[in-house]
Amino acid sequence: MINAALERCAGIDVGKKFLAVCIMTGPLDQEPRVERRRFGTITAELESLRDWLQAEHVTHAAMESTGSYWKPVFNVLEGSLKVCLAKPQEVQNRKGHKTDDKDGWWLAHLLRHAMITPSFIPPRPIRELRDLTRRRKRMLGDATAEKNRVQKVLEDANVKLGSVLTDVFGVSGQLMLDALLEGKAQPAEIAQYAKRGAKKKIPEIILALEGHRMSDHHRQMIRYSLKHMAFLEEQIAELDQAIRAQIQAEGLDQDWQLIQTVPGIQERSAASILAETGADPHQFPSAKHLSSWAGVCPGNYRSAGKNSHSRTTGGNPWLRSALTECAWAAAATKNCFLRDKFWSVRSRLGGKQAPALIAVAHTMLTLIYRTLETRQPFQDRKAPMLDEPQRQRMIRHHIRRLGKLGITIHRMASGPATGKAPTPAD
């Protein structure tokens, strides 16, 4: 028999209406005493569960992260014992043996033998900041959905502005959209609202508007979307203020500023990253563990000594999304080593963008970890100057590489290259 790791632990099968709880107590080298009970999910029942666990001197409890039903249980048990939140995929019971009571026993058994990897649960202030940043992300998604609905209505009305203008909701597009909603029907008149670079497209805009079928019904549907978009803009502005206030109230300003020193990361992205990872990097053993948790590093699938694939793991989708957006920004930043890394990986993989973005995101998260760990702003260290032996070695290396491509370089006897342009080999 394998010795256990915990003397007193509990497994909690979480449901919407009731909890199936199993406790295991006893010496590590003996079979444990098992006791099962059921509790409701209202606060009074959860407090009864906490009192029972404390009376049995239970030190650890495990439960699945089932939707949001685990949160009321965690709120009551937090502070009285250590709660391990497990991924459902990692603690699934055997097929044909799944009941609520057996699930509770199985969780307790796995926890007693230290076979559960607990999920990361940040402190309450970070969880509240996370709620704000995630809601803002959803609001942005809702705004994008409304823009797509407007575009569909315009297509239904034979208005092809989306085929001419880069952004229908830019300055020129908004003015033309307002003119259509006011009932102006002459394409030439509407096209005069073009501003700046869009003026060059006035002939194309006229062709895109000729013969349109904009009706009162179409105008009403667009107004619904515009009103919703205005409401979402107000909500996003309020959320930005709430996020900034939460960061200041919890004393996270310095961490927020440190994250922004990494290339490609600005205020809003830094707030999202801080809300997902927390301000204490030592909650993860190393930067590699953090990258694995975020899902921006290759996974392992090795069998019989062979690697079948190295796809990235699922990880934290919110953090992964924020990092890939920042990776796009870093890849477009001039004089930035992350941009060189992006193009280097992309060219090596035959032009594939997604793996290159993940590689840059992985590097950025490692930099964030080191920045928060050292409490020092990130500084882009340029490559040091080469001394003469290193310079000669680099010259010889590239001459050999050019020779393999069929190009010869003439060198003087002293060693340095002649400076002549490369000539094709005979």
Question: Can you walk through the features of this model?
Answer:
The protein is α/β, with parallel strands linked by helices and 426 residues long. The protein folds into 4 domains: 105 residues, Nucleotidyltransferase, domain 5, CATH 3.30.420.10; 124 residues, Helix Hairpins (Orthogonal Bundle); 116 residues, no CATH class; 37 residues, no CATH class. It is 51% helix and 10% strand. The chain has 15 helices and 9 strands.
List the helices and strands and how they pair.
Layout: E1 8-14, E2 18-25, E3 33-40, H1 43-55, E4 60-64, H2 70-77, E5 82-86, H3 100-112, H4 124-156, H5 171-181, H6 187-191, H7 202-209, H8 216-249, H9 253-260, H10 267-277, H11 287-294, E6 302-303, E7 306-307, H12 317-331, H13 337-348, H14 353-374, H15 388-404, E8 407-408, E9 423-424
Parallel strand pairs: 1-4, 4-5
Antiparallel strand pairs: 1-2, 2-3, 6-7, 8-9
Helix pairs in contact: 1-2, 4-8, 4-10, 9-10, 10-12, 11-14, 12-14, 13-14
Q: What kind of sheet is the major sheet?
A: 5 strands, mixed
SSE string, helices as H and strands as E: EEEHEHEHHHHHHHHHEEHHHHEE
Please report the total strand number as a whole number. 9
| CATH fold-level assignment of the largest domain | Helix Hairpins
> In angstroms, what separates the terminal alpha carbons?
76 Å
**What is the correct CATH architecture of the largest domain?**
Orthogonal Bundle
Give the neighbour order of strands across the main sheet.
3-2-1-4-5
Number of domains: 4
Mean pLDDT: 88
Ranges where pLDDT stays below 50 over 5 or more residues in a row are 417-426
Beta-strand portion reads 5-15%
From the alpha-carbon coordinates, what is the Rg to the nearest angstrom?
A: 30 Å
Apparent shape: globular
Q: What is the CATH domain class of the largest domain?
A: Mainly Alpha
| Structural class by SSE content | alpha/beta
Fraction of residues in helix: 40-55%
* Number of discrete helical segments: 15
